[in-house]
Amino acid sequence: MSGRLAVIGLGPGDDAYLTAEARAEIAGAEMFYGYAPYLARLALRGDQTAHASDNRAELSRAEAALTAAAAGARVAVVSGGDPGVFAMAAAVCEAIDHGPAAWREVEIAVVPGITAMLAAAARVGAPLGHDFCALSLSDNLKPWDLVCRRLRAAADTGMVVALYNPASRARPWQLAQALRTLAASLAPDTPVIFARAVGRPDETVTVTTLAAAPEEPADMATCVIVGGPLTQRIERPGRRPLVYSARAVPEARQ
Amino acid sequence: MSGRLAVIGLGPGDDAYLTAEARAEIAGAEMFYGYAPYLARLALRGDQTAHASDNRAELSRAEAALTAAAAGARVAVVSGGDPGVFAMAAAVCEAIDHGPAAWREVEIAVVPGITAMLAAAARVGAPLGHDFCALSLSDNLKPWDLVCRRLRAAADTGMVVALYNPASRARPWQLAQALRTLAASLAPDTPVIFARAVGRPDETVTVTTLAAAPEEPADMATCVIVGGPLTQRIERPGRRPLVYSARAVPEARQ
Questions:
Q1: What is the 3-state secondary structure (H, E, C) of B72-133?
Q2: pLDDT tens-digit profile of A188-227?
Q3: B126 shares a domain with B45
Q4: Can you tell me the distance from the alpha carbon of A13 to that of A179, in angstroms, rounded to the nearest whole number?
Q5: What is the pLDDT of residue A140?
Q6: What pLDDT sits at residue B131?
Q7: Could you give the 3-state DSSP secondary structure of residue B30?
Q8: Do A247 and B94 lie within an 8 Å CB cutoff?
């Protein structure tokens, strides 16, 4: 007898970003799998159990959740942000793809959430208002040279770039090199946003420039948005500047 | 006296995608500006007024909303999906950038929502699980040649592509040409998803291939996701196939 596995996006930060659908899915599940800080955000009932695992144990967490669901349980795998963007939904699919046939009979529901770049962009205006790319800067699963080729491709064609996983203790130099790679094609005053822990009490959001960006601190809870040639900064009296990427490309900039 | 302008993302489809923050912002506003079908999704109270405008009147709608907010009103501009992705937040910023100084004193809050590509991706698994681009196929505001250069840049570097505004009555041929452009770099069996009206009663989601994709109907309510070299399709008995983009790049594919 096959159960059901919901991969639920909690959004970043607190419950303000939780959707009605995510709330209903959380109420309906009995076993919860996830990274401990995400599980800690849930107010589970006595009949619901939490199974915490390390942030890097994505595939083994997916396998444990699928095993429980294939045995008939109503299972939830929780992700911060959106589960489909550099998070658990791909790990669950990968586990199904390489797992036993019974896992293909489990009902799978992916419940979208507000992903970090949308929350970060909202804090400053509309930097993602023009065509953009979302890249993970982690080179744990892909060669660094490929990351740089994607960055060059985006900058050379005027796309805004949102960077996930910009830095960690094990990956201290990648962000500076990524910013240098983008700077080869973009103006030094291109607006850059560092948004850390959006929606949490320790949220910090900084608007800087591509030239000054290497000075900013970043970690795994930071989303960095690097504007394109159409990204503008609007100064405001007594308020953080707005940043937006113009919808229209002037003929002269083609 | 300056009021407040909230640019609120309602998510696609019905209220399942509405966040707690969006719900609170809707409750707190007194004047609502937006495209009529989005305003129709709100259950406004007697003390709240709706000001509908045409889908293409984005800049004049933003100006009307800013005029009301600068006069002291609590104003909401509503968008389907996320207001920062090819929607109203950039139009509001653009109006501020080119408008009277008083508009820079209005408190601006952008409230993120589930954008179409996240809802579309969730319906089939995790096609956006690897690096990706989000492009609007509309060439009303940018040259078509630039759209094609961005498509080639994405496909040549193995990024997944999410296409917004793929087709309309006035733009009937762009999607087929975009698919041909991508097909120059991608395998004919690359998975492609057409997701229309996700979350609405008339929702349709189709998983096809790049070779067969030109046969699929599309309109302004459709989001098209074209996979990359790492995008896999998993067949399942009695269920829609899953589609996901693998997180890891095998060395051989560099």
A1: CCEEEEEECECCCCCCHHHHHHHHHHHCCHHHHHCEEEEECCCCHHHHHHHHHEECCCCCEE
A2: 999 999 999 999 999 999 999 999 999 999 999 999 999 9
A3: no
A4: 26
A5: 87
A6: 98
A7: coil
A8: yes
Nearest to B142 among A92, A96, A249 (CB): A249
Interchain pair B133, A110: CB under 8 A: no
Residues of B with CB below 8 A from A4's CB?
Answer: none
Q: For chain B, how big is the Rg over CA atoms in Å?
A: 20
pLDDT on residue A251: 66
Please give, rounded to a whole number of angstroms, the shortest distance from the CA of B150 to a CA of chain A.
6
Which residues on chain A are in Cβ contact (under 8 Å) with B18?
A: 19-20
- Whether complex ipTM tops 0.90: yes
Residue A46 lies in domain: 4-114
Structural domains in chain A (count): 2
Chain-centre distance of CA B123, in angstroms? 15
Report the distance separating Cα A102 and Cα B160, nearest Å: 29
Cβ contacts below 8 Å, chain A against chain B, sum to 246
**CATH code for the domain in which residue A246 is found:** 3.30.950.10
- Nearest CB neighbour to A84, from listed B104, B108, B118: B118
Q: Does the global pTM surpass 0.95? A: yes
Quick one: closest CA in B to A100, which residue?
Answer: B236
- Band the pLDDT of A139: cuts 50, 70, 90: confident
Q: Do residue A248 and residue A127 come from a single domain?
A: yes
Contact status, residue B110 vs residue A122, Cβ threshold 8 Å: yes
- Looking up residue A24, the CATH number of its domain turns out to be 3.40.1010.10
Residues of chain B with pLDDT under 70: 1, 251-254
Contact residues, chain B, for A105 at CB < 8 Å:
236-238
Residue-wise pLDDT for A18-36, tens only, equals 999 999 999 999 999 999 9
Q: Enumerate the residues of chain A whose CB falls inside 8 A of the CB of residue B113.
A: 114, 118
Cβ of B244 within 8 Å of Cβ of A21? The answer is: no
User: Which residues of B are less than 8 Å from A115 in CB distance?
Assistant: 118
Q: What is the mean pLDDT of residues A66-71?
A: 98
What does the pLDDT read at residue A253?
A: 43
